Automatic annotation (TrEMBL):
GO terms for molecular function: NAD+ binding; prephenate dehydrogenase (NAD+) activity; prephenate dehydrogenase (NADP+) activity. One of its GO terms (biological process) is tyrosine biosynthetic process. InterPro entries: 6-PGluconate_DH-like_C_sf (IPR008927), NAD(P)-bd_dom_sf (IPR036291), PDH_N (IPR046826), Preph/Arog_dehydrog (IPR050812), Prephen_DH (IPR003099). Keywords: Oxidoreductase. Residues 3-270 form the Prephenate/arogenate dehydrogenase domain. It holds the Pfam family PDH_N. It comes from Mailhella massiliensis. PANTHER family: PREPHENATE DEHYDROGENASE (PTHR21363), PREPHENATE DEHYDROGENASE [NADP(+)] (PTHR21363:SF0). This is Prephenate dehydrogenase/arogenate dehydrogenase family protein.
């Protein structure tokens, strides 16, 4: 028999993607829920569900759980896919007495073809090895690669990878804004950076702002970055450059990373071309 998996937020982009991917496995029967979360729909969906997976903004977790909890099986695993983990894990474990297993798929709803789909798995304090392995199996069913971490480890890493990427881009374009005298000097590299950052700052700006502010390690990463900028202000650019070049030094892991980066860049270029044809 297939295991019932409730996807709360099934009409969102990630929720819809997971509904489709999990629906392609004989092992699972995904059932979707979304606003306004009618009691009868929740009761029917949660009946016998092995996992309730929250594909919703982290800010919506407490209010959504208040509606869902009365209908969940006592042994059901509560999970989520949010990009910050310490705060959502605290919310989920404080509100649900059963097992909690947090996740963070490190890819979007339409990942580049042949890209390695990595997922962070964050076991809660009451989750058994069986619970954690079951949540991992959801992602393994569509060829994801999972790895385990604590909520703190995850958020420290994401403060650097996701948070600093967002805030440094926002700061850079804020610094260059409102200066028409710059327009004749715009270079292709500036335009490439502008194009790659547009969606993050224009469409997803409020989301990334919340993630930056909700991550307890964001301010510490900004201080680290400020220290490097201080080196640049003092004229020690060579030192910064040598540290940055670590990413391009020989290593099988980094070669694989560069190949994945090329796939993402190609997908972005195709999306930009498609957007240009339809605009």
């Amino acid at each position: 028999m297939s295991e019932r998996i409730v996807i709360a937020g099934c009409r969102g982009r990630m929720g819809a993607m997971l509904m489709e991917r999990l629906g392609g496995s004989e092992a699972f029967s995904p059932v979707g829920l979304d606003l306004p979360y009618e009691p009868e729909a929740m009761k029917e969906a949660c009946k016998g569900a092995r996992v309730v997976l929250l594909c919703i903004p982290a800010t919506a977790i407490p209010a959504t759980l208040e509606k869902l909890l009365p209908f969940m099986e006592p042994s059901a695993i509560l999970s989520d896919i949010t990009s910050v983990k310490e705060l959502p894990m605290r919310h989920m474990e404080s509100l649900w007495n059963g097992p909690v297993v947090g996740t963070h798929p490190l890819f979007g709803p339409v990942p580049a073809q042949d890209l390695e789909l990595r997922v962070t798995i964050v076991p809660g304090s009451r989750a058994s090895e069986e619970d954690v392995a079951f949540v991992e199996s959801l992602f393994h069913s569509f060829s994801c690669v999972t790895f385990r971490a604590t909520a703190e480890e995850h958020d420290m890493a994401e403060a650097k990878i996701q948070g600093m990427n967002f805030i440094t881009s926002a700061a850079y374009f804020a610094m260059t804004a409102e200066d028409p005298a710059l327009l004749p000097y715009i270079t292709p590299s500036f335009l490439r950076r502008m194009n790659s950052t547009e969606k993050q700052l224009m469409e997803d700006g409020p989301l990334f702002t919340w993630l930056f502010e909700a991550n307890p390690h964001s301010q510490a990463m900004v201080r680290q970055y400020r220290n490097l900028l201080s080196l640049a202000a003092a004229g020690d650019v060579d030192l910064i450059l040598r540290k940055a070049q670590w990413w391009w030094k020989d290593g099988a892991g980094k070669e694989k990373l560069h190949e994945e980066a090329r796939k993402v860049a190609l997908q972005s270029a195709r999306a930009g071309l498609k957007k240009g044809k339809t605009s």
